[in-house]
Amino acid sequence: MIDLALKKTTGKASFVGELSFGPRGQYQSIPNGPDDNSFHIQNLYVNYAFTDKFSMTAGYMGTFIGYEVISPVANFNYSTSYLFGAGPFQNAGIKGTYAFSEKASLMVGLFNDWNVYQDLNGVSHIGAQLMVAPVEGWSAYLNFLSGYSAGAGGTGTIFDLTTAYQVTDKFKLGLNAADYSVSNDNGGYTGVALYPQYAFTTAVSLGLRGEYFNYKGIGELPDASVAAITLSGNIKAGGLTFIPEVRFDSDKDYSQEFVKKSGAMAKSASQFSLAAVYAF
Q1: Residues 58, 77: contact at Cβ < 8 Å?
Q2: Burial class for 269, CB neighbours closer than 10 Å (0-12, 13-18, 19+)
Q3: What pLDDT sits at residue 36?
Q4: CA atoms of 146 and 108, how far apart (whole Å)
Q5: Residues sharing a CB contact under 8 Å with residue 61, sequence separation 6 or more, in sequence order
Q6: Which range of residues forms the domain containing residue 160?
Q7: CA-CA-CA-CA torsion for 64, 68, 73, 74, nearest 10 degrees?
Q8: What CATH number has the domain bearing residue 71?
């Protein structure tokens, strides 16, 4: 994946445009799948700071929901969580943010359907984010998004908590928990992921992601759950980060359709990967 961003600030106005190239951007953004686009828009928005405390943003924005993001530069683990994969990836609309202080702010916005360039359903969602930073090194975001998506069986509502605490200079702990429900008994999901990370030196760190994710059954169908644990190393040399990673997924309900070499269904899967990420 290649991710290119252009940012410009003039006075109180600013612009952000970000494009991604490659399969990671293609399959974890919108359009989400094998289409004919050679690039995918991650961000395309403008912002205006009316005062030191109040600003407004309009356009196509990376979502405010969740702990992980599409670009691997900002993530510790290279593979992504089930919570991230459930979306949303982007939100198009307009939002206002007010900073009560350096330790608290509130965002409220009106948005189109999730993850679409062109919305056939109009302005259909309302979202909000409360940020608090109680002490130095600790921040928490309580997120909310609700609305009716085109073709959906009901109104979808997600509550999401994202928090990270730099406990010591070497140890950091992150948490992401979310609940998404669609009215009229049309499913959704619940999930939680924990992210402990330890820095042995400024160049070598080790991080774990433990996750539980539950798909809510639609109608009379039962729930299905999957658990995953991912161990990743971060080895840095200048702008280069080398990420060796081991991941194990347990899927007792066959929700992920893991397949053995023989073609038979499997209840678990494991993988080892090596990734190189360079940030300019």
Answers
A1: no
A2: middle
A3: 60
A4: 12
A5: 43, 45, 90, 91, 92, 93, 95
A6: 2-278
A7: 60
A8: 2.40.160.10
Could you tell me the two tokens for 250? 């347990």
Give the contacts of 152 (CB within 8 A, at least 6 positions apart). 182, 186
Pairwise CA distance, residues 158 & 88, whole Å: 10
Residue 243, pLDDT score: 98
DSSP 53-64: SEEEEEEEEE-S
pTM over the 0.85 mark: yes
> pLDDT tens, 38-73?
678 889 999 999 999 999 999 999 999 999 998 899
Contact 161, 177 (CB under 8 A): yes
Specify whether the CB–CB gap between 48 and 252 falls below 8 A.
no
What is residue 119's predicted lDDT score, i.e. its pLDDT? 73
Looking at residue 219, its pLDDT comes to 81
In the chain, the number of structural domains is 1
Helix (H) or strand (E) holding 139: strand 138-147
| Rounded-to-integer distance, Cα 233 and Cα 81, Å | 16
Give the count of beta carbons closer than 10 Å to the beta carbon of residue 190. 18
Q: Are 258 and 227 in contact (CB under 8 A)?
A: no
Which parts of the chain sit beneath pLDDT 50? Answer: none
With beta carbons less than 8 A apart as the criterion, state whether 22 and 37 touch: no
Please tell me the distance from the alpha carbon of residue 10 to that of residue 46, in angstroms, as a whole number.
11
Task: Calculate ∠ Cα 177-179-183, nearest 5°.
Answer: 175
| pLDDT attached to residue 28 | 56
Q: Taking the C-alpha atoms of 183, 185, 187 and 188 in order, what is their torsion angle to the nearest 10 degrees? A: 40
Q: How do residues 215-236 score in pLDDT, each as one tens digit?
A: 998 888 889 999 999 999 999 9
